[in-house]
Amino acid sequence: MGQIEAVGAGKRVALFATCVNEAMFPGTPKAVVQVLERLGCTVEFPSEQTCCGQVFSNSGYYDETLPLIHNYLRAFEGYDYIVTPSGSCTGSVRDQHPMLARRTGDADLVARVDAIVARTYDLPEFLVDVLGVTDVGAYFPHRVTYHPTCHSLRITKVGDKPYRLLEAVRGIEIVDLEDADRCCGFGGTFSMKNPDVSVAMAADKARHVGDTEAEFLVAGDNSCLLNIGGVLARQNSGTKPIHLAEILASVEPTLTGAQR
Amino acid sequence: MTDTQTTPDASPTGPRPLKLVTQNNHGRARLTPAPPEGELIDSPPFPEAARRELGLPVQRTNLRHAMTAIRTKRADVVAELDNWEDLRAAGAAIKDDVVRHLDRYLVQLEESLTRAGTVVHWARDAAEANRIVVDLVKERLVDEPYQEVVKVKSMATQEIELNEALEDAGVAAWETDLAELIAQLGHDRPSHILVPAIHRNRGEVREIFTTEMGNYGKPAPADLDSQPVNLANASREHLREKFMRAHVAISGANFAVADSGTLCVVESEGNGRMCLTLADTLISVVGIEKVVPTFADLEVFLQLLPRSSTAERMNPYTSLWTGPTDGDGPQDMHVVLVDNGRTNVLADPVGRDALRCIRCSACLNVCPVYEKVGGHAYGSVYPGPIGAVLTPQLRGTASSVDRSLPFASSLCGACNEVCPVKIPLAELLVHMRHKVVESKKADPLVSAKGLGLHAEPALMKSASWLFSDGRRWSAALGAEATVGGKVLGRVTDHFGPLPWPLSKWTNARDVPMVPDETFRHWFEHRGDRPDAKGREHLASEEGDAR
Amino acid sequence: MSENSSARDAVLGRIREALADVPADEPKTSQWTYGRPTAMPDVLDRFVERVADYEATVVRLHDGSDDAIGRALVEGLATIGVHDVVVPPGLPQPWRQAIADAGVEVVDDDPPLSRERLNAIGGVVTAARVGAAESGTIMLDHAADQGRRALTLVPDVHVCVVRADQVVSDVPEAVERLQDSVAQRRPITWVSGPSATSDIELKRVEGVHGPRTLYVIVAGRP
């Protein structure tokens, strides 16, 4: 690193960690903080934040989602940039918050939701589109394969941005994943309501991941990684799941750093 | 066959040379092979049926091969057209216009059909449609030795279970599409909109043909092998005698053109043309949503449909007819316009998007859930994503299978991308989930029998309360260390199997240990940490343990 | 009130009730422009390529004269090995004559043959109405030079002459050309290759109920 420009200087960013990451994967939001601060952003963590609500809305519990939409507004309304390490939660804010706001018929709520949606970014979008970088100074000398995740791909539509960020990582070797765009079978409550089908889908994904002989499976969503990683771990696979943000946070060791 | 018998000649309708067969027909003497016993609507809920289907290894292999092949083929033929997205937008807009002004277009269609010499009938439901068709057929077969009709593959007639109504009336309905023939002779139900026998492989088809063809007409050749070309030939030979003597044919329609009164049937094998051309009477059973406004609109749909369905630039045969033609084909033409629940769909301003469907089955072919379980798990003639949104709208959500269908999806959204008329299937699935949830809330008894998690509405309500305030959530997480981290400590990376209901997850997957420090605590105190400004690479430390 | 008219009123009534939220005069939203040609380097080349892709035999004949077509028909029938053909009443006389002169038995569908008789005949020779290049489709409107629909369906071999000036780029132009036929309420059949099925393991097999052999002569210059 060293030559990384502070392209984020002067940008005040609110981190939306997401409930799954707060409860199970704190390393991922930590990594987002590290990457964004390295690029010069000022990162804040509004402590009012909780959950995007998709477990409710996607299960058909519309009334139960509304308080979470209001809470999202309370937590993030003062920020120009809200960044989250989850394609799925970004998608939920972007697609379902406006849909549910409109159902209430409350024009003020619709306007507020629409405004905040426009300022909510999945991490790769913020890095590539807003900060205009693909090289964030990361170093990760490993063989990895990338699972694009359905909601990143089809709802949030991050396209090839995560891939471009990965390609710019020093030392990395990226191998293609067969049927990469096929669902891993997680689907939120789907994995609980239809466990047999979910496991059959996850097994396919894990098989394709195994075929890559990668050391790490990368994705932009920890829930999908939890699902695939669960099968991989049960199979004692050599491939470990890792969130994209954690690869981007990883830097080349320095003498002082190595003493840690 | 020892267990077949000839019908007595003294039948009230005169000589009937068709045999009554009891073999494999649940002990009943029938003209046509019996489908599986029981009603589709009484099927088990999707998760249960899915488990049953997942236990069929041959079917799983058949489905994986077929679905993988057709997905690739579709992507290739779609990529050939520069204006595919324009076509999809046009298809959606045209069908949307039809759906939103259906009364007007139906009246126009009726006028055009009548002007062209076709008799138009209306049916509120399946029973009425069946009664109309059975009456028309019986009248026309009064003096005929063969009490039978030949059928073009039609989802509408499957939906109303016309074949069984005809069987009950003493008329044999012969399916003539190869896959439908396989399903019919196999005492099976179709499992796919386009390729109803997709769950069968060549060996199984050979077995079905060898065992069953002779019971219902010309037997399969004694030396029939399982080469698809020879199996197709066997069907040609078996059906040809039926086409040669056909008096009445029954079809559906892919499109019914309002301005010209033209009906359109899209097919591959020529069995459709045989039925549409050789019979004296043609009865077309058409769902009321099949209308397109103008003949010119076919330029859009006849590009969208074949590429989306069979993944071809064009299907081998498309028949378009505008009433009877002197000296060519049936002179007696009828159309039965069927509602059968479609107006229920129409009454839901969100759900009515599903009526744009042109039955291409592209959404089935890309669906990872369908690929695993096949069509029988859906308990409906309409499987896959479109079935999961359409069936509970057509039939309502009173049955346990219909309540389970909107949840038969991981919401991956692959279907949205391929639908040629841009039905927002994932959004409609969520919409239907909402309808099911609302009905559960309204009826606690339903909720108790419901969707697997008995206490789900209450659980969701308390979780919503927890997540609607950052302080509650923060307290739940723990101030410094997570609750789980405090209780369990970091003794291992993963949990193995856990008790129910978590066993639903951990029967096949490990779960990572709960982290010990909360992110919130780290964030507030990160100034003092060595890793605050970027984590230096140490391979052993990548990621959280998952 | 008859049962049918009460069913009609009931269904239309339900529809109107269901659509109470929809303004009757809302504008159409489709942006589609009809009948546009599809750009391609050479329409006839594309047509020949795409028809051949369906495992049909395609012969390109630059000389579009009746003599040349007659010779090509004779050659085609000999290649396939057809000894008797049915022809529609309006097939151009020189074509019919050439076939007969070559020793192939020509049966006129005039008066119309029974289905059994048709089923026993080796092949059929017809003209066409439109060809669509991009999709490789031949469109028949069953005029006198193509004959009634059963003619091109029951015999196992279909030899079809498509004139170069009948070939258009793609489906939109073709549908536009068929407007006259539909206005006259002619039946229309689109043929894209020989009869086929993919119903067993999605393996395409040519030839089920319709003609298993499709032999196309593309005659003349555009």
Task: Give me a quick take on this structure.
The complex is a heterotrimer of chains A (260), B (546) and C (222). With 260 residues, chain A is an alpha/beta fold.
Strand content of chain A: 5-15%
Note the gap between the termini of chain B: 62 Å
User: What is the correct CATH architecture of the largest domain in chain B?
Assistant: 3-Layer(aba) Sandwich
Major β-sheet annotation of chain A: 4 strands, parallel
Fill in the CATH topology of the largest domain in chain B: Rossmann fold
Number of strands of chain B: 15
The protein's oligomeric status is: heterotrimer
Can you summarize the main beta sheet of chain B? Answer: 6 strands, parallel
Overall mean pLDDT of chain A stands at: 94
* Percent strand of chain B: 5-15%
| Rg of chain A | 18 Å
CATH class of the largest domain in chain B: Alpha Beta
Q: Helical stretch count of chain A?
A: 14
Structural class of chain B: alpha/beta
pLDDT below 50 for ≥5 consecutive residues: which ranges of chain B?
Answer: 1-16, 539-546
**CATH homologous superfamily grouping of the largest domain in chain B:** NagB/RpiA/CoA transferase-like
Q: Average the pLDDT over all residues of chain B and give the rounded result.
A: 90
Structural description of this entry:
The complex is a heterotrimer of chains A (260), B (546) and C (222). Chain A has helices spanning 19-24, 27-38, 54-57, 62-76, 87-104, 107-117, 123-130, 150-154, 161-167, 190-193, 195-212, 222-234, 244-249, 255-258, and strands spanning 12-15, 42-44, 81-84, 120-122, 143-146, 173-175, 216-219, 240-243, 250-251. With 260 residues, chain A is α/β, with parallel strands linked by helices. Chain A folds into 2 domains: 12-130, no CATH class; 143-249, 3-Layer(aba) Sandwich (Rossmann fold), CATH 3.40.50. In chain A, the strands form 2 sheets. A 4-stranded parallel beta sheet of chain A has the order 2-1-3-4, with helices on both faces. In chain A, strands 6-5-7-8 form a 4-stranded parallel beta sheet, sandwiched between helices. By secondary structure, chain B is of the alpha/beta class. In chain B, strand 7 (255-257) and strand 8 (262-267) form a beta hairpin. The model of chain B is unreliable at 1-16 and 539-546 (pLDDT under 50). In chain C, helix 3 (66-80) packs across helix 4. The termini of chain C are far apart. The interface between A and B is large, with 103 and 84 residues.
